[in-house]
Amino acid sequence: MARQRPINEKSASVRIATAGEDLVRVEDLRKHFPIQTGFLATLLNRGNIPTVKAVDGVSFTIRRGEVFGLAGESGSGKSTIGRLVLNLYEPTSGRVLFDGIDLSSLPEEEMRRMRARMQIVFQDPLASLNPRMPLGQAIEHPAQIHMPEFTAADRRKQVLEMFHAVGMNPPEAFYDLFPHQISGGQRQRVVLARALVTFPEFIVADEPIAMADVSVRAVLLDLMMKMKEEFDLTYLFITHDLATAKYVCNRIAILYLGKLCEMGPLNEVYGNSAHPYTHALLEAVPVPDPSLRRTEAMPAGEIPNAINPPSGCHFHPRCPLATAICSVEEPLWREIRPEHFVACHHAEELLK
Amino acid sequence: MPDDILYSIRNLTVEYKTRAGAVRAVDDVSLDIRRGEILGLVGESGCGKSTLGKALMRLHDGPASITGGELVFDGRNLMNLSLREMPDIRGAEIGMVFQDPMTSLNPVQRILDHLTETIQTHEPETSIATARTRADELVERLGIRHERLKEYPHQMSGGMRQRVMISLALALRAKLVIADEPTTSLDVIVEAKFLDLLKELQKEFGLTILLITHNIGVVAEVADRVAVMYAAKMVEVGTVQDVFADAKHPYTQGLLKSVPNIKLDSGDLYKMGGQPPSLLHPPSGCRFHPRCPFVMDICSVQEPAFEPVIGDHLASCWLYQKAVAEKTTGKQEIRHG
Q1: Which residue of B lies nearest to A243 if distances are taken between CA atoms?
Q2: A22, A23, A103, B222: which sits with the fewest CB atoms below 10 Å from its CB?
Q3: Which one of B187, B217, B272 has the shortest CB-CB distance to A303?
Q4: pTM of the entire structure?
Q5: Nearest CA to A64 among A113, A109, A25?
């Protein structure tokens, strides 16, 4: 049985959608960041300021109760999408629907209340915690903002329960400690506890275990999955590590230079990758088994500059399957097998 | 020293002076680096692997100092050299590649000048023209077009910068390259290509590489042998085949089981209890004993020796120590009797 948000008569009503329904719907989302240039250049180029197309026309849905993975190399736009989904950035165009509500249409006050239902966990827990705020207070802070109907004593009880939930026992021993007094793994537990204290439905986890030590990563992943069951959560799991994604994600989307190149159920994408980029990424992951060393050659070059992305398919200059059409025409986003989407002119060749 | 060993590290201890007392970041570590091999050195953050890497060039400074041990490189004990003689070894005979190439390269110096400066510092008789030709040939071999030698570090991508770092080590034909987390700041595809390059250089130049990393997958991908450190101690050394197929030390066993494997179909990751200890107050006996699933009485009392388990496969664990093994076989004999 999942934990429920404690309710008292003044609590705001929370809409409850059922599992499997769309919780987050992202429609043709774009985020173009203007490039900082000198004053004179801005004056001369009025209305024509160059931009970095960090996210360029991305659509997907996240179903309630699933772990949706978003993977790509650095600069692919995955973290920008994470922030756009929570309305922490204003999109250049396109929209994000959360539980059917267009977030950009919400007045500020309603958006603020909406934030109780969505939280984010960042990569670096030390940077996410105020070094001068005791851990207990850090966890209590969101509850103070979002659950004003509760008394201080109730909130303290709630915070102690959160410590317990993330495996920091005895809770009282941690309440007054500061972030520098605990280990990196414990810090990430505190960040998770803080995200959970308002009983959100949706958590964006942006590389949540990338900073942790190898022996601690598996423990943190396991904790996140336990919390998912206990708190009935939906995750957007942002990662560059396809091996880790394999252990947690139900569906995954692969991002390259601000565009999706492939999306589908995890086993389908990993087992029958239809995009040459996905294929290369999967091959590149180092395998902890010397008898399974990679033999395949890697694509040429590195991820290009997002200010001037290549024409047509962004991946064509590095693609082993590229033909004339790839540099001219952008491939359509199409469903190549049930639930399995890809943007590639030559997807069929890889599936053979 | 047998001729196939390039670098023999014996009982090395490195200490950091802190306000809370001396911390031994490397504690009585012995390790052989063989000629022409890629030796992977793995461990978690704070286990002392980077400190060990720096100590091999006697690069420590400030609060750190080598307080014991021998560093026998190519027949010479580097501990007997004066610090003024060390720069002849550094760069020329032992090269180093760090995690972040941007902080290792001079931002206001062109790539070409990095290379010619390195060559001319160590070989002052080389003319600038010869140095340039050598730089050209070298970077071309490493997959950088020679026109790019005119560029500054910030104009290159992360992968390219890391290739420049390797070229600096190769410019003087270093016998040993110590690569400390060389691929950690790179994306997977770039990382894979860099690892391919390391393997090629190992073959072509007969290069010996000490690859320090926390990424077990990287070691499995390129290394010939692997050394595992835990809390400033060496806990296991063996060929990658032996260690990955049949790890002896419980820490190595747990570590290998907790690493995600993209090629495996199912199975949960192993969740190792606890966390690495503080080196200010390391646990008594075997440092892994508070986290060890096979802990015995002796483990918290006495430190196990680092010795061969089978052939070339060394571990420091009471499960395999001869003294204990004899006792157990002794008991069995009594039972049979």
Answers
A1: B262
A2: A22
A3: B187
A4: 0.88
A5: A25
